[in-house]
Amino acid sequence: MEITKICCIGAGYVGGPTMAVIAQKCPNIKVTVVDLNEQRIKDWNDPNTDNIPIYEPGLSEIVAEARGRNLFFSTEVEKAIDEAQVIFISVNTPTKTYGKGKGMAADLKYIELCARQIAKVAKQNKIVVEKSTLPVRTAEAIKSILDNTGNGVQFQILSNPEFLAEGTAVTDLLNPDRILIGGDTTTEGQEAINALVNVYANWVEKDKILTTNVWSSELSKLTANAFLAQRISSINAMSELCEKTGADVSEVAKAIGMDSRIGAKFLKASVGFGGSCFQKDILNLVYIAKSYGLNEVADYWEQVIIMNDHQKRRFSNKIVQTLYNTVADKKITFLGWAFKKDTNDTRESAAIYVADDLINEQAKISVYDPKVQRHKMLSDLDYLETRTKEENSNALTIFENPYESCKGAHAIAVLTEWDEFITYDWQKIYDSMRKPAFLFDGRNILNAKELEKIGFIYKGIGS
Ligand code: UDX
Ligand code: ADP
User: Disulfide engineering: 134 pairs with which of 109, 138, 166, 433, CB 3.0-4.6 Å?
Assistant: First the structure.
C-alpha cells in the first residue's frame, strides 16, 4: 500500500514538528494535523511562521515551506480521520492526577477518546500509529476499542515512538539515530509496518529503521528514557559527594565520559532533569513493574526520580543557607524557566519547584526567560496548588529584559542553560545588585573564575 494521506491527532511538541518534517520530506503525502484546541491551530496557521506555538530552532522555516502545499493544520478532526490512510495519535498522556495509579500511571483518557473517535468515523481500513509515549500494552486497549466500537473495518495498530528531544527536534527528526516501528506479526501487520517504513525511507537510511513487535517498541521507548534519566541522576548523586570532598563533578564527568563503555553524553550535572518525558515515563515504568509484583524492579527505577527531586530541593536549600538562612523579602532572580534551552516548554522544569520552595520561604522571585510566556510561568506555579493564584502572582515578577530582572537582586539563580546568558555583561549586572552578590549556577554554564574576579560569590553544581 502506498501512503498518500496522513492525519495526526494532536498539534503539540511531538505531533507538530514530526508532521512538519514528514511533510517537508514527502511532498507527495498530504499531512493534516488536527487538534481540539482552536487557539493552537490558529497559531499554527499564523501567516507569520515565527508566531507558531512551538519554538524549536529551524521549525518555522520548515512550516513556511510545507504549509499550504501538503501540510495543513485544522480543527476538523473527523474529516481528517475519514480522509487519511494512516492516523498518528500524538495527544498528551500526562501522569494521572486522580484515582487508581494517581501520581504514577499515565492518564489514557485522551488516547481512549481518540480511539473512539477514529472508530466512529472510519469507513475504510486504517493504520493507527501510537506516537505518544504509552505504557506497554496500550496498543491492545486501542485495538479493543477500535474493533468493538468500529464500523466493521480493519485496523492495524503500530507503535512508532518518538525519540526527538525538544530544542533539537528538527535535527533529531532529520537525522534520527533510529526509527522504531512495532507491529503485529501477522501478514496484515507486516504490510502496515512496511507502508510506514516506506514513508520514513524517503529520508532515513533503511538500516536505521528498526521493526519489532508492538510490545518491544512500546517498552523500548520507556527504557530509553529511563536509561537517559538514570545517567543524569547518577551524575547528580556524585555532584553532592563532590561538593563534600573537594572533587569537581565536571572533571569527574569528563574523566568517566572518555571511557568508551560509558560515553560522554548525558553526564552534565544540573539542578535536575525536567521535561514531559523522563519523570512521567519512569513513573510509568515503576507502576507497570509494581502491577506485575516486581517490587525490586520498581524500587530500582523509582530511585532515579527520588534523586532528581532531592537535587532540586538541595539547590533551593543551598540558596537559603548561603543567604544567611533567610530569603524572606529578598529578591532572587531566575535566569531561565524552560526545562532546557531552545524550547518554550516548561513541563516539569526544575525552575517551578525551586521557585515554589523559595516562595515558601517568602522570597520575591523575578524571572527572565527568552521564550517562555508570562502566563505559562504563573500557571506552572498555580498547578502545584501550594498557594492561591493571587499569592503566586504577588511572589513572581516577570521581566522582558534580563538586566532589569537582576537590578537590586540579592542573588541570581541560573535554571536553564540558554546560550545568551554566557554573553551577558556580568560586570554591569554585578554593579546593579545588592552586595554581597550571589550567583547560583544550576547548569554550570558560566565562567566561575571570571565571575569571582568581578566580585560575585559563585556556587555551581558539584564543585
Ligand atoms: C527526552 C529524550 O531525550 C528523548 O529521546 C525523548 O523522546 C523525550 O524525552 P527531552 O525531554 O526533550 O527528551 O530533553 P532532553 O535533552 O533529554 O533533556 C531532559 C532533561 O535533562 C532536561 O531538563 C535537561 O536539561 C536535562 N539534562 C540533560 C541534564 O540535566 N544533564 C544532561 O547531561 C542532559
Ligand atoms: P506532546 O509533548 O506529547 O506533543 P502536547 O500537550 O504538546 O504534548 O500536545 C498534545 C496535543 O493533543 C494538545 O494540543 C491537545 O490539545 C491535543 N489533544 C488531546 N486530545 C485530543 C483529541 N481527542 N483530539 C484532538 N486533539 C487532542
Answer: 138
